[in-house]
Amino acid sequence: MLNVKVDPFEPTDLHTQVAAEIRRAIADGEAKAGERLPPARDLAAELGVNTNTVLRALRALRDEGLLEFRRGRGITVTGTPQRSAVIAKATELARMARQHGYRQDELLEIVRSVS
Questions:
Q1: Has keyword tRNA-binding (predicted)?
Q2: Residue 4 placed within a domain
């Protein structure tokens, strides 16, 4: 079982906390590419949250390219610690750009100009 924890008294949404903890586990190498994650209902029971909360977090990580869902085979880690770290930094950059009034196309132009 992954070593993930959530704090129901923290102002951050529970699904965001779950996703962040799984992202951290991937970045730390606790969950390696090719490994299967426990079923969502098992993770939910372990964390003391609703299964839908875990599923929402898992779908977000799938959309980031860190997880793959396979019918009958469960959820597999497809991302690497490096990809996880890059995604975390990109998320931070996108959030900062939004706070400073940059549109997505402007941010993409900035990233292209520095790469």
A1: no
A2: no
Structure tokens that stand for 56 in this block: 């929402």
Angle (CA) 57-77-60 rounded to 5° is 20
Whose CA is closest to 67, among 54, 86, 49, 80? 80
Angle (CA) 44 23 38, round 5°: 35
- Residue 48 in any domain: the answer is yes
Q: List the CATH number of the domain containing 96.
A: 1.10.10.10
* pLDDT tens-digit readout, 3-23: 788 888 889 999 999 999 998
pTM over 0.85: no
